[in-house]
Give the backbone structure.
Amino acid sequence: MKNTVGNLFSKGEIALIVGVIGIFVVLIIPIPSILLDLLITVNISATLLLLLVTLHAKGPLDLSTFPSILLFLTLFRLSLNVASTRQILLQGYGGQVIASFGEFVVGGNIIVGMVVFLIIIVIQFIVITKGATRISEVAARFTLDAMPGKQMSIDADLNAGLITEDQARNRRELISKEAEFHGAMDGASKFVSGDAIAGIIIVLINIVGGIVMGMRQGMSVTDALQHYAILTVGDGLVSQIPSFIIATASAVIITKTSSSENLGKDLSGQMLSQPNAVAFAGGILAIFSIIPGLPKLPFMILAGFFGILFFLLKRSSKKLAVEEMEQRETKKNTQEPQSEEGVEKLFHVDRMGIEVGYKIVPLVDPQKNGGILERINALRRQMARDMGMIVPPIRVRDNLQLGANQYVIKIRGQDVAKGDIFPDCYLAIDSGTTTKSIEGTKTFDPAYGLPALWISGAGKEDAEASGYTIVDPVSVMITHLTEIIKNHAYEILCREDVQKLIENLKKESPTVIDELTPGVMPLGNVQEVLKNLLKEHVPIRDMATILETIADFVPTTKDTELLTEYVRQRLSRTICQRYQNGEGKIGVVSFDPQLEQAIANAIHKTERGNVLALEPNMAQKLIDRLIEVIKGSLTSGYEVVLLTSSNVRSHVRRLIENALPQVAVLSYKEISSGVKIDSVGIVKL
């Protein structure tokens, strides 16, 4: 069965070519009545199938080929019109289907047939087609206008590390397909309106042509009109009923929004979601049934139907409420055991957590697509890919003591960052290329401290047109969380994480694991090296290289600081890649040789390792001078790093980490071969 379906799909291209050629064959070559009946039946069946598929589609893009289908079905229907007209005028007979519609459907009455035909045309052309055309135009315009904002949102998520390149590419393709679909539907809806006009003209031409042909065959005007008009009306109904179905399908696909369910489930779920509304409708119908002069039976039947429906919905809602309550109680009893187990849980401290004010609670709904919980899961995967670390589960809970729009990021139970987001607003960040100022509540981007404004949804398009970068509230919080994780990764990493990383590597490189742990190097020392790397934003994805380096040098030293320097030198290519510009260069600031020698002379060996013992006054002067040089080099276009010798690198990093936390300190041995450096400043005292 699967092979048969697969063959149908694989041969769809051939079938399409044959079908299009067949349309033109029917248009040109006369065909027998039995074949015409078959093709008319195929036309009706195809339009019904398309309508049913449209009703079951969950979104417009589930049927993205609809404009093309509409074109081909319109051509097919018009070719059948030509074929049936040729058959009627030449032989005075259009086949069994047309005769049945002319005699049975309208009772052989010309007046009734014409009235029914015109009513169908009016409904199709004025009501359905006009509305669908207008919706197509508006949808196409709004979709195209919203494209820049959607593209910027995707770029923001990609830059924040919330999605991968493949996910970003897929989202861009989806946006492009949506715009193309609505643009195509805007034009394809003209097929339907043109088909309705063509139907009226064809009927008039057929009636006039039928009278002429009948008179040439010796029939009177009345007999010719009676005979050919019935056939013409039957032909018109046969063609316009499928056209009516197609117009309905196009209106459905245009008016449908994307959903996880088909249209039938959405309609029933939403229309019957309010039992009280059903009860009110039943009461109004009951009142109508007792008003003198109005028919009582129809209103009483419908009032009774709505009453029964109300009681069924009420019973169902009560049953659902009881089930939800039982589930909550069961979950509560399962998650919060009594007595000693419940007390022991009070000692647990989450490694990471977020507390939110009550207005942010809807954004953390697990059922909400694109909500905070879903984005946190994506963030954890992204950090595993980029940094090689395991981000622990981040527990999100509400806190009524916080401000309504406030959130707090915690690490091991302690507050490390705070911020405010407004669920119904957008954060507009000045990109530096803005053309005019906009109205909004002044604030700062919590992740980077940039000046920004909270604006309403109504002002979003104006802000984008003015050059502002627009970020939705969920992205604001997730970007802030991303920066916090990067800056505090060394605090988050625990021994359990290190053990998991080692066990994962053991599947690929068991030799280095057996050589290193646990006899040669304790797990705690390996953790300390990894924490030193993460503290300076060095990824630990290449665990094989890290552990091999430790295994190479651990026989000569157990000092984790020194081992970290050896590992950094082995990871030089990874480290340099982060700071290179588009030309492959790194902009560096270095110390004057005499100053660097003075720093090296100030390093003293103690029982706890080497310590930099600079005089406080000299240390402050060095930091102040370094800040001046760094500020002066900002115009160079580089992400400037401080370059030192390897024996003083770690000590200088600790010296300046509070004053210049964003400045990276690299040693000369960490500059990999082939990397060019560009000196943008020298620090002298």
